[in-house]
Amino acid sequence: MRLTDLPGDAARRDDMGVSHAADGTAALAPEGAARSERAIIQAAQRGDAGAIEDLYRRHWKPAYRAAYLVTRDAHAAEDIAQEAFLQAIRVLDRFDRARPFAPWLHRIVTNRALDWARAHALRRPVEAAHEPVAPDARNDLSDDLAEAIGRLAPDQRAVVVLRYLLEHTPGEIAEMLDLPRGTVNSRLRRALDELAGAVDA
Amino acid sequence: MNAGEQLLSAQMRAFEAPGEVEAGERGRRLMLAAFAERTPARRRRRVRAPRIGWPLLAALLTALGAGAVAVAGHLREGGSSRQDSAPFTPPQLSEGMVLALGHGVAYTFTARGRVRALGPASDGDLSPHGSNAVLASGSKVIAVHVADGQVRWQRAAPGPVSLPRWSVERTVPPCCRVAFLAGGALYVVGGDGKNLHRVAAHALAVAPAWRPHATDHELAFAAPGGIRLAATDGKLPPKRIGGAGRPIGLSWRADGRVLAAVDATGVTLYGAGGKRLQRIAGGGGTVLGGGFAPQGNRLVILRRDADGRVSVLTRGLAGPLRRIRRLSVTGVGDLRLSPDGRSALIASTEDDEWIDIRLRDGRQRLLLGIGKRLRAGFAPQALAWAR
After folding, report:
1. Are the Cβ atoms of B20 and A65 closer than 8 angstroms?
2. CA atoms within 13 A on the CB side of B171
């Protein structure tokens, strides 16, 4: 399912290239792009700075949001997402343009965020690691759901983010996190049970 | 995803993380600065081999020793160094080409990852060479050239067409035949679209099975009252070779001497003359499908176990069925066997993935994102696998 498939899809695009539906919700999937991702990566490989900026605009927000939801720390999320993009620049010449960029980026971001969250959880209680949401931030995630995601174990947060924010299949998640698929499914099931009361009906 | 999961996904995707705009701008500047400092890699150039004959060069290199022979191999391959490993492995078949169906459109999907939409269809099959596909589309049976998607021929049928099956002879048309069901009857048409005729007035909705190495284009099919074998080029009526049970699948062993009739509880083997040879129990649970591999003697069965899980079982020339794999998914489509008989392909109906199982040892490989690649919807089904 893509958010752009939802009703009221009179979309506009903001300055970060993220589309917003008429009801103000944001869609993460890049759409209506003037050129394909393959062409963008090809242009970036040739040294086109505009292309690398285009690639960044397409993928920054999903990467940052994923890192934030796993770490629950804005500074850590920024570092993790930035480092993933810098890694992309380092290996740009070795990219196979026929292959999708997003899964590769999501794999790096989620694994690093997961490492950070695990390490952080050892140092202090999870509650203390939650950064309060800035009061001026427009945040459509209900407080209950945000709190519920924050209460999940880091491993569960990672699979929830990959499945429901970034919309990867359990098989893809298993490959990204190097887990058996049964483990991914069981983590998703447990996480869903814990989140059940927090999802707005 | 169920409704609750979709709601969760929508809420998460609508989420804006604190500070993301400011962090995004900082990241953008950092990214552009890093990109400006980057030195683009030089393009690899194809190394041209010297313009001398390969036999002469080979003789020269043999005289020079093994190291020189290795250099010669590099030159013969065009001198290109191996590509660096890609960051993310795309779905790849182990061999050949699969005809897939998603959202009412038939596609071909090759081992090299090439995808081609062939047209609207509800069912289909590939020719033995994999150069043509036959599609069931409404009340028409349509043959399409796979390489360019052009319609080679189409024939109208007296009802909705289903279960088209191309004969297994590996020679050039018009030797080949296409069998299909329409309006409850079994029809056969030549591989060139000519000579459409009805073989049986009544046939059950089970894919007919062409007998390999038959001299007269023999076809096994399920009919009310039992399994029949028809010589489709002859005048004789179909002869009965099986009992009254209702099979869910028919397939011939590669040598054309044994027919497997798969039903919900096991497999019955028949000789080509109609003699019942053996009954192989499914071993509990419900058999979902299966049959003989296109090469060799291996029999492969897909079974739903009592606990709801799905298992893949195989058997060689003799002995009981042996489980080689239990799948982690519970919703599966039909089983398709590779042309060399070494692999089985099972499409998940729960997820966007195909499961490629090596029959020798049950090792599995997941082909993820097939639906995304085909733009064919959530879980495309594999209809046929050919070279």
Report:
1. yes
2. 9
The CATH number, out of the four listed (1.10.287.110, 1.10.1740.10, 1.10.390.10, 3.40.630.30), of the domain defined by the range A21-198 = 1.10.1740.10
Q: What is the mean pLDDT of chain B?
A: 81
- Please state whether beta strands A26-27 and A19-20 pair in parallel, antiparallel, or not at all (unpaired): antiparallel
Predicted TM-score of the model (pTM): 0.55
B33 touches chain A (CB under 8 A): no
Residue B231 has pLDDT above 70, yes or no: yes
Q: Tell me the ipTM for this assembly.
A: 0.74
Helix (H, G, I), strand (E, B) or coil at A153: coil
Cβ distance of A169 and B24 shorter than 8 Å: no
B319-332 pLDDT per residue, tens: 889 999 988 778 88
Those of residues 166-225 in B touching chain A at CB distance below 8 A are: none
Q: Where are the domains of chain A?
A: 21-198
Listed residue (B313, B298, B216, B217) closest to B254, CA to CA: B298
Closest C-alpha to A67, from A25, A14, A10, A120: A120
Nearest to B11 among A81, A82, A199 (CB): A199
